[in-house]
Specification:
The protein is α+β, with helices and mostly antiparallel strands and 352 residues long. Helix content is 34%, strand content 24%. The chain has 9 helices and 17 strands. It has helices at 2-19, 29-32, 55-73, 81-86, 97-112, 122-127, 140-149, 176-190, 283-308; strands at 35-41, 44-50, 93-94, 156-158, 161-163, 196-200, 203-207, 216-221, 228-234, 238-242, 248-250, 256-258, 273-280, 312-317, 321-325, 332-334, 342-346. The strands form 4 sheets. A 9-stranded mixed beta sheet has the order 1-2-6-7-10-13-14-15-17, with helices on both faces. Strands 3-5-4 form a 3-stranded antiparallel beta sheet, covered by helices on one side. A 3-stranded antiparallel beta sheet has the order 8-9-16. Helix 3 (55-73) runs antiparallel to helix 8 (176-190). The longest helix has 26 residues, at 283-308. The radius of gyration is 20 Å and the shape is globular. The relative contact order is 0.13. Residues 1-30 have low confidence and may be disordered. The structure holds adenosine monophosphate and magnesium ion. Adenosine monophosphate (AMP) binds at residues 117-119, 121, 125, 130, 171, 173-174, 242, 259-261, 263, 287, 290-291, 295. Adenosine monophosphate (AMP) is lined by residues 117-119, 121, 125, 130, 171, 173-174, 242, 259-261, 263, 287, 290-291, 295.
Length: 352
C-alpha cells in the first residue's frame, strides 16, 4: 500500500511542477525548461528540477549525493553506518562527519521536543510491523517492555564516536530525508544553481525562487484522500508534511494504526491530528518538527511554536479544522473545494 501511495504522490508532485511554472516574457529557454532528475531512493520517489546552465550536471551530482547518504543511513543495508551502530553490541563505533552530525541533530531535537521525536523508537515501529509491512497489534506488555529498553538519552555521542547500549537501534527515518534535502540543496548552490525545486517523496526543498523571481507554488495534498487542500507560495525553504495517513494499516479490530508512534505510549499517535506541515529554513528542522508536532497534537504543537517561533506550520485536524501560523497567512490559499474547513490563524500577538 505504501509503495502505491508513494507512486501516486510522485505522479502528483511531478504533475504539479508544470503548474508551478508560469513564466514571464523575456526569459531564456534554459530558464523556461528545467532540467529534471527522477529516481527512487530512501524508500521514496524523488523528482529534482533545476533551472539555468549546468543544472543537469548539478542534479546528477545531487542524485549521487542522495545515494551516498542512503548507503550511510539505511537501517537495513548491512553496509551502512547505522546498521553497524545498531549491531555493535554496545561497543563504540566511529562515524563519518555527515552521520555524526545528523545523529547529533536528531538527539538535540529529541531533547528539545521533550522526547516526542525519538530516534531510538525503531524496535517499537518494528513491533507494529511498519518495517516489514507485516503489520500486527503488539500487546501492551510487549510495548511496555520495548519502551523500557529505548530512549534517546541512553545514546552516547562524543565527537564522531557513538555508543549505543546493546539491543538498542537507531532509525533516522523521521529526519533523514529532510537532512538529505539540505545537503542536496547545498550541493546545487555550490554548483551555481540559484533556482531549483527538490521533491523528496512529497516533501519539498526549494532553492531560491522560480526563474521569474516569484515564489514556488506548492500544492498540499489532502490528508483525507483525494485532492489538494491548498497552495503555499514559498522560496528558499523546506516544506515537510507528516501524517499517519501516509502509512497505516487496519487492525483486526477495524481501527486504523499509523506509522508515527508516540514514544510515551508506544501506540501510534492518535490525538485528532490528520497532518502537520512544517515550513522552515532547513529541511532537517522541518522534517524533525513535522514528526514531533504530529506526536504532540494541536495544543502541544501550538505551545511549542509559541516558544520557538522559528518555523511556520499548517496543522489539519481530523474534524476538519486547519490551523496556520501567522507567518504564512498571506502565502497560503485554501482550495475552494475545501472551503467547508475552518481556517484558524495562530498569532503570536495573542500571548504578548
Ligand atoms: P516522518 O514521515 O518524517 O514523519 O517519519 C516517520 C517515520 O519515523 C516512521 O515511519 C518511523 O520509521 C519513524 N518514527 C515513528 N515515530 C517516531 C517518533 N516518535 N520519533 C522518531 N521517529 C519516529
Ligand atoms: Mg519527519
Amino acid at each position: 500500500m505504501k509503495r502505491a501511495f508513494l507512486l501516486i504522490l510522485g505522479l502528483f508532485c511531478s504533475m504539479c511542477l508544470p503548474a508551478c511554472s508560469a513564466f514571464g516574457a523575456g526569459e531564456t529557454l534554459t530558464e523556461r525548461e528545467p532540467s529534471q532528475q527522477e529516481f527512487f531512493a530512501m524508500d521514496t520517489y524523488m523528482t529534482f528540477s533545476a533551472y539555468g546552465e549546468g543544472a543537469g550536471q548539478a542534479l546528477r551530482e545531487a542524485e549521487e549525493e542522495i545515494y551516498r547518504l542512503e548507503s550511510e543511513w539505511s537501517v537495513t543495508d548491512k553496509g551502512s553506518e547505522i546498521y553497524r551502530v545498531n549491531h555493535s553490541g554496545g561497543m563504540p563505533v566511529s562515524l563519518s562527519d555527515d552521520t555524526a552530525e545528523i545523529i547529533r541533530f536528531v538527539l538535540d531535537m529529541a531533547e528539545e521536543t521533550g522526547g516526542a521525536l525519538d530516534p531510538t523508537i525503531y524496535p517499537v515501529v518494528s513491533a507494529w510491523g511498519f518495517t516489514t509491512d507485516e503489520n500486527r497489534i503488539p500487546s501492551q506488555e510487549e510495548l511496555q517492555t520495548l519502551l523500557g529498553e529505548i530512549g534517546y538519552d541512553k545514546v552516547e555521542l562524543d565527537g564522531n564516536l557513538i555508543r549505543l547500549p546493546e539491543g538498542m537501534e537507531l532509525d533516522l527515518g523521521a529526519v533523514g530525508k529532510g537532512y538529505a534535502g539540505d545537503l542536496a540543496a547545498e550541493l546545487l548552490k555550490e554548483n551555481g544553481v540559484t533556482s531549483a525545486l527538490l521533491d523528496i517523496g512529497g516533501n519539498i526543498q526549494a532553492v531560491g525562487s522560480r526563474p521569474d523571481g516569484s515564489g514556488w507554488r506548492i500544492a498540499l495534498r489532502s490528508p483525507f484522500g483525494e485532492g489538494q487542500i491548498g497552495v503555499l507560495e514559498v522560496s528558499d525553504c523546506a516544506v515537510v508534511t507528516s501524517g499517519n495517513y501516509e502509512r497505516y494499516f487496519v487492525g483486526e479490530d477495524g481501527r486504523e494504526y499509523g506509522h508515527i508512534i508516540d514514544p510515551e505510549t508506544g501506540y501510534p499517535a492518535d490525538n485528532g491530528t490528520a497532518s502537520v506541515t512544517i515550513i522552515a529554513e532547513e529541511g532537517k528542522t522541518a522534517d524533525a518538527l513535522s514528526t514531533s508536532m504530529f506526536v504532540k497534537g494541536l495544543s502541544g504543537a501550538e505551545e511549542y511554536w509559541r516558544t520557538h517561533r522559528d518555523f511556520d506550520m499548517i496543522l489539519i485536524t481530523e474534524d476538519g479544522h486547519i490551523y496556520i501560523t501567522e507567518g504564512i497567512e498571506s502565502s497560503f490559499t485554501l482550495n475552494s473545494s475545501f472551503a467547508n474547513m475552518e481556517l484558524h490563524v495562530l498569532e503570536t500577538a495573542a500571548d504578548e
